[in-house]
């Protein structure tokens, strides 16, 4: 309990967002399956139908348990510390930007594909992940069962490479294009709100891998 309190202290927005994603996704995967299909982002005919809310609501549901757990772990690992570093207003703005930019790009890229639909918090969480790496370029995380820490930049690059490959394969309803859009949003956001931070992060990365 003390560890949980330490994690959430100073990060009210991250706590609320993670709880919302977990609860809404769990309801959709168990007791209310219609929630998933109702809130899917379907770019084709979006303007005609007028369901613009799915640009946001699709970011709070997930296709399966592994998708949910992977996104939840990534957000837990990077979101709480980032909110404490940036402050809640900037963190909320970053999350909103990641969600809206990734959903908007998805809607544009797939607007002529009648069968395309996507869901998941990947875009917003990818923005959080890459902004966190700009702020903490030398951070690392532990992922069981690996007995050694993984540098956060390595995790981020692997995350992005997986997204690019999965996007090309176009499998499932997970919006891999959103991962890429979110990553770019996170880096651009930090460049705007903290000029020079991206360059400093790159310097820290070169120091990390050059040591």
From TrEMBL:
Q: Which GO terms describe its molecular function?
A: serine-type endopeptidase activity
Q: Report TM segments.
A: 12-32, 52-78, 90-109, 116-136, 148-166, 178-198
Q: Which SUPFAM superfamilies match?
A: Rhomboid-like
Query: Which keywords does this Swiss-Prot/TrEMBL entry list?
Result: Hydrolase, Membrane, Transmembrane, Transmembrane helix
Q: Where in the cell is it found?
A: Membrane
Q: Domain Peptidase S54 rhomboid spans what residues?
A: 50-194
Q: How does it sit in the membrane?
A: Multi-pass membrane protein
The source's domain of life comes to Bacteria
Show the Gene3D superfamilies listed in the entry: Rhomboid-like
- A Pfam family that the UniProt record links to this protein: Rhomboid
GO cellular component terms, alphabetically, are: membrane
Q: Does the keyword Lyase apply?
A: no
Q: Which family does it belong to?
A: Belongs to the peptidase S54 family.
Name recorded for this polypeptide: Peptidase S54 rhomboid domain-containing protein
Give the originating organism: Pseudaquabacterium pictum
């Amino acid at each position: 309990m003390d560890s949980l309190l330490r994690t959430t202290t100073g990060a009210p927005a991250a706590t609320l967002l993670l709880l919302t994603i977990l609860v809404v996704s769990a309801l959709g995967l168990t007791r209310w399956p219609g929630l998933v299909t109702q809130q899917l982002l379907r770019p084709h005919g979006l303007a005609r139908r007028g369901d613009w809310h799915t640009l946001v609501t699709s970011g709070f549901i997930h296709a399966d348990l592994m998708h949910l757990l992977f996104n939840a772990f990534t957000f837990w690992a990077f979101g709480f510390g980032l909110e404490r570093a940036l402050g809640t207003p900037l963190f909320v703005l970053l999350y909103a930007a990641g969600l809206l930019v990734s959903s908007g790009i998805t809607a544009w890229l797939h607007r002529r594909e009648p069968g395309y639909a996507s869901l998941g918090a990947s875009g917003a969480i990818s923005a959080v992940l890459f902004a966190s790496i700009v702020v903490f370029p030398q951070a690392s995380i532990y992922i069981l069962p690996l007995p050694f820490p993984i540098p956060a930049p390595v995790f981020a690059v692997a995350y992005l490479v997986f997204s690019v490959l999965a996007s090309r394969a176009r499998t499932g309803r997970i919006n891999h294009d959103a991962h890429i859009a979110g990553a770019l949003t996170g880096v651009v956001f930090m460049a705007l709100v903290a000029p020079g931070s991206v360059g400093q992060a790159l310097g820290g990365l070169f120091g990390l891998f050059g040591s």
